[in-house]
Automatic annotation (TrEMBL), chains A, B:
It catalyses: L-glutamate 5-semialdehyde + phosphate + NADP(+) = L-glutamyl 5-phosphate + NADPH + H(+). The lineage of its organism: Bacteria, Pseudomonadati, Candidatus Omnitrophota, Candidatus Velamenicoccus. Its EC number is 1.2.1.41. This is Gamma-glutamyl phosphate reductase. Catalyzes the NADPH-dependent reduction of L-glutamate 5-phosphate into L-glutamate 5-semialdehyde and phosphate. The product spontaneously undergoes cyclization to form 1-pyrroline-5-carboxylate. The gene is proA.
Amino acid sequence: MRRTKKTKSPALERNLARMAFRAREASRVLASLSTKKKNEVLCAMGSALLEHMGAILEANKKDVARAAKKGLSKAFLERLTLNEKRVCEMAESLGEVSKLEDPVGAEIKTWSRPNGLLISKVRVPIGVILVIYESRPNVTSDCIGLCFKSGNAVILKGGSDAIGSNAAIFGILQKVVEREGIPADAINFVKTTDRRAVDMLLQMDQQINLVMPRGGEALIREVRDKSKIPVIKHYKGVCHIFVDKSADAAMAQKIVLNAKVQRPAVCNAVETLLVHQDIAGSFLPVMAEALQRAGVEIRGCRRTRQIVRGIGRATEADWYAEYLDLILSVKVVKDVREAIDHINRYGSSHSDAIVTQDQQNAELFLKDVDSACVYVNASTRFTDGYQFGLGAEIGISTDRLHARGPMGLEELTTYKYEIRGTGQIRE
Amino acid sequence: MRRTKKTKSPALERNLARMAFRAREASRVLASLSTKKKNEVLCAMGSALLEHMGAILEANKKDVARAAKKGLSKAFLERLTLNEKRVCEMAESLGEVSKLEDPVGAEIKTWSRPNGLLISKVRVPIGVILVIYESRPNVTSDCIGLCFKSGNAVILKGGSDAIGSNAAIFGILQKVVEREGIPADAINFVKTTDRRAVDMLLQMDQQINLVMPRGGEALIREVRDKSKIPVIKHYKGVCHIFVDKSADAAMAQKIVLNAKVQRPAVCNAVETLLVHQDIAGSFLPVMAEALQRAGVEIRGCRRTRQIVRGIGRATEADWYAEYLDLILSVKVVKDVREAIDHINRYGSSHSDAIVTQDQQNAELFLKDVDSACVYVNASTRFTDGYQFGLGAEIGISTDRLHARGPMGLEELTTYKYEIRGTGQIRE
């Protein structure tokens, strides 16, 4: 999405507009497909991936070789690389989605009015969803599965380094869709690597109803700035754990360790530890030792550094930082109020936890911390569609509108009102 | 919001940023106010409007005189003008909102996980809402009331022609807020008429969570294009009624007349009538006569004009038109399928109705018409927060995300997850 000088390409724009228009048409067919039919197609998609394993791995090998030649990082290559196990997981995921409850058509609420009108609020698909993503090829099949089950047409725009793998996966799945008698335009893949394609798609608000950018913060901000279409996004996860005065120290230690080291590179890992001043002297030395044993670098506030010697200083920038690494910033706070204020000021409204035995402080923290997921006595690592029992996850929203926190199938729907009357008119 | 050459004004930007920041802070206080306290404040606000009736009317008189001098239209002046009755209605509205159920804190869903985590999805305020509106001064107090009750801080940017009236109403209500010990920044009013103010506010996505533009389509599109903040909007209402073959003709006639003439200038009035070909010959002459008697101009398709002589021709543009006037376009269609396709193609996803005695066609229409409100055997004029029983309405959304159709207090909230554990960590 770097800026290019040539910003016009009528042929490209025409092609994309046609794709978006057809996706819109197909979305109307998808919206009224039966659950049974959708589940059959999902299972057939899973089988097709396994059947064409060889073609997928071959296309992927070429992507990886090209990326390696370009000198892309080891972590990048790792994310890009597919193997038999990963393709099997992709196929399994599609099978899992087929087993989830279909949100479409569910009655959210029904009531009648004094004039006899019967009003039902009913779940319906959003329509056409554009997903913009980076290097992981499994996102291609995951998004197709979740959008298909929730009755949405999808337009996928993957990263150019994975284009061979993505195109292979997409091609296999689209053939299944066609074979099953569903419009092929129910799932769409942008085959060009022309960076202007995204800019053009983001203007097509007549056809596309939602944009979900997945990737680095810069990509997401650019999409947000350019889009005429509503965007649901997830910038970052600056998650906190506050260890209260009354905390069970062993529990607190276990939770903090889990939230920091079990998988440090993910958005629900903890980045800042806040400790009540009354227990800092006893809690922090033990906690710090355990963290350091696990390879964690600690950056402390002034008071933390008085208690734990030999650690680095946390600057203002550290309180805003999403390390995604074995680094933890630590701050001693006066009380639960200061902890809440710190979190609301520096946090990213993602996931934050209190460890406490004090019921009142627990409830205060739950109410006043303004985040998507607020925990009492549990690890922040549970913020996840599967862990929540949503069955699947298309992403985590740190936005406030439409969906907040883990987004499953239900969050890929909207609603409509069905109103049944017997000739009522407005007086 | 016309473009100006001087686009920078650091002082203005600083002032607005300060306002937005303070609104954000105040929103945290609002979020935890008790329902009782909020209701008391709302009632006090209503009383204050009545108490200061004279000041409001005086300020309004100056606005109206200035607008008249500028040569603004009679309809515009009518919308701008306040009188004792209108101020009483504003006060009553605040009292009504105090009686509505408080959505904040309501548990949407609670479930437990196999590991013992208890997950609750709980309603919370959205945060800070920016409302951009045009000439009606009652919007000032209506929006303050609804945002306050739903725990949101509000920033109001009204039209420059009503600035004296709006400032008077706002000043009176803010004094009540302060007197009741609530941060004054819970409600905010942009006093400048500098057109750059809106552009600046639309960039402040760190502080402002939602923008609701109310007014003409041009204003709304401009806000959407410039905003970094999510926008919920309502472009227009191109509403349809389809009279099916099996319709009760008397009921159909009554509904069409009501939807067209009861109040033609509103968004839920019908603009296009679709009639099944099998009954067009008998239904249309009677219907047309009734409409013409009520002063309605009919613009028909070819077949309509063969049946009803002496009417104008409906062009392609007519099918897209929101007349907001005593004009109706009429088209004869083959069947319910053609009616649905016409509505999904030309409609604005607002409100559409079928009149039929055929249960199967009714259900098909309800499912396949892709609009916020779909009616069977009732007038489209019921799309309204009060008529739906939501108690109040801050607007109608023709968007698909977050809120669709009439928006009441519940639609001014989002949710958070409160998760209660006993030391759970992720394995």
